[in-house]
Structures
1.
Amino acid sequence: MEELRIGVVGTGAIGRKHVRRITERLKGGKVVAVSDANLAGAQAVAAEYGAELFEDGGALIASPGVDAVIVTAWDPAHKEYVMDAVRAGKYVFCEKPLATTAADCREIVEAEQAGGKRLVQVGFMRRYDEGYRRMKEAVDGGFIGAPLMVHCAHRNASMDPEYEDDYMITQCCIHEIDLVKWLIDDEYESVRVLLPRSTKFTGRRLHDPQIAQIRTKKGVCIDVEIFVNCQFGYDIQCQVVGECGAVNLPDPSYLPYRKGAVRGAALCTNWEDRFVEAYNVELQEWIDATRAGRVDGPNAWDGYVAAVTADAMIRAREAGEGMPVDLPERPAFYR
Ligand code: NAD
Ligand code: ISE
């Protein structure tokens, strides 16, 4: 295939970043069409990048001038656009989450299987981060023996005061939910959520921090601290402890300094900077695989597993007790 002609539905913060990286940094793809419910925003992006403006996302997806679709609209619109792309037989990269409920993800999985071809990739970009990839190589290669425990932290400096409890799971922890199962090659069995004392810096709708705990089918125990008003930066941590060693996610390399009788190093303040290279690699690999007629990255089934696990966590938090992660076996179509 010549250059991949890409249509982007959703020209908010991350949509614009993806348009820019495809245009200025990546190879093999061109953004030819854009659309957004905020027409003025999409119009500005269309003018800047010479793309065609569509008032309607569905029309963009149906356009014969669009080979493949990127969905970066807000979460509740993902399902509709992914379904449109699947029905049109077009490859689609959808930012996480695949859809806001497990039932909607299931519908996508069923539609894709009915079409007989894998088309959907979900934007779980942590799998493309160099540090996590090195950890996975070490775990897969037996460097630490069988994994026993995984400790994670997902910290944001601060969130909008209207941020809600469920977003801790569906917008933040959803990354760790996908990442850890990939990292240790396991399936989830049950979850629970602990609520430590809440910080005074949180908004009225949010208990912050929360600790999600997951037990896997092989018996590995995973804990994820989600703390979105930690005040000190955007800080992502991960450690896998195995039978004969442990591996840690490397921190991004900032210049260490000595100044004013302090030895220090800066921390990231936002997810865009922390994972900028992961987004670049993720979308380059998506363009390459799409041109070759494949889906190599996290697929619709991974999106479904993440949604089922997230739903179980929300129920576990509300009930104050453990909940099973009820999933059918992964179909051969997704192996
Ligand atoms: P944003 O609010 O800046 O942008 C969302 C855009 O969607 C807005 O421009 C809005 O007008 C548009 N929109 C809303 N409803 C629409 C509809 N029905 N049709 C078309 N457009 C519609 O948010 P964002 O930070 O850019 O996030 C966008 C998506 O990317 C979200 O799903 C979010 O979860 C995901 N995201 C992923 C990561 C990651 O690390 N992978 C990081 C941030 C955001
Ligand atoms: C945001 O929604 C993301 O998806 C980022 O990757 C995540 O790390 C951040 O905490 C979320 O707010």
Note: The radius of gyration is 20 Å.
2.
Amino acid sequence: MNLRQNESKRMVLAPAKLNLYLDVFDRREDGYHELETLMVPVRLCDSLTLEPLPLQDRQTPRKIQLSVRPRWDRSAPLDRSRSVPTGSDNLVVRALELLRQRSGCADGARLELIKRIPAAAGLGGGSSDAAAALKLANLAWRLCWDRQRLCRVAEELGSDVPFFLYGGAAICRGRGQLVEKFSSNAPIHFVVVMPAVGLRTVDVYQRLDEQTANQPLRQRFARGLESANSLSHALRRGALAEIGLRMCNRLQAAAESLLPWIELVRRACAQLDFVGHQLSGSGSAYFGVCRHRRHAHRLATILRTRRLGLVLVTRSFS
Ligand code: C5P
């Protein structure tokens, strides 16, 4: 964990993620879809600072106070679907309330969240913030819970939250909460393009269901030749051409039908020599894999001239 601390405050970086592989299978009885995904954390990070507020009179639980400071790139106009909740519906506050409920701890916390990861982008910003909050409170409130125990709270908050508790690249299965880490030390360089408009995960999954409703069960969400395991081997070897071949995102067509902007970016990326390019998660952020840092900056400069949205260069966070 990327932790900085002094006597009263602890600060942790909460990285965004990119899905290099996302296959979706049938809807489960709990309403979620079974999936297999390979995710890589990247250096685009929020930061979360926590100052504990210890219980004073043994009666009244202390408050959980959150202030959010957006640090958006000024060149990026963001619509209201991107605004981050600051009150009790922020995932950071929900994470700490749930942790208090499960642990019986009545201490409070004063939190400051610096937001750089846009919401509704498929970059996992809210989930990463929640995982950061669980890690910080576990230390600050001296709970000493192991990761498995924290993960049980994390998966109640969202399918991607356990991934961020583990840190590093991983393959996730189930509804996303079953995390299998793998080591991938070779840095990967990315260009990420973000539109002004976000997409809600629930809407994209619903559109996928509509698009596949009339297909025979055997053909729905059919597993391709690619698999997350082969991609993880390619990543470990730094075999870029194979990474490009094995990338896939089963939610992309559904997301494109909700937001035609994605098709525009896909077409723009297809004209450039990316190793591979696709939507991250349920979108709306779109990214390309590059051969090295200079390659990423060159392609980002070209994409910026197309005025498709905010264009960032980032790399994997190992
Ligand atoms: O778990 P999370 O809160 O991130 O999921 C948001 C929504 O995305 C769910 O309510 C569900 O509609 C959809 N989803 C799904 N299958 C998954 C993950 C998410 O259908 N494995």
Note: The pocket of cytidine-5'-monophosphate is lined by residues 32-33, 35, 158-160, 175-176, 201-202, 205 (CB under 6 Å).
